[in-house]
Amino acid sequence: MLTEGDRLQLARFIQANVEKYTDALVRAVELTQAKDYQRQDLQQIIAGYVAIMSEALVEESSEKRTFYLETVIPGLVTNGEALPKLLYGAASVSLIISMDVMHGFPSASPTASPSELSDWVADYFASFLRDMMGSALTTAMQNPGLLAQMASASS
Fold first, then answer.
1. What is the pTM of this model?
2. In this model, does residue 139 exceed pLDDT 90?
């Protein structure tokens, strides 16, 4: 189990790497040919991602996560982002952050074992991706025209 100090250090570690994670999302968007996003839009998405991960690490609230899942994800879906591309981008960033944490953080925290760190990160991202897709699917199902539009956009 990660100590309170480990959790605080991990939050600081990911907050310090927003640019790196933005670069990863830019590459994912290019690979999937997702909607035309400006770098600042992608940086805002990453800032939200990092904020909700930091919240999970050091706060007793899930307000930011709830806001992200109830506002940001439905907004992306409503604006026509295809679900497979949305998942690809989120999974890519999750893996980039995970790999960065597993390679860069252990040296910054001698008290966190690699298995404790990987367990926390894997559980965090698995639950976030599950909830993100739930939010996206709920939004799509509430807007009948979106499902057909997304199916054709992902081909």
1. 0.83
2. yes
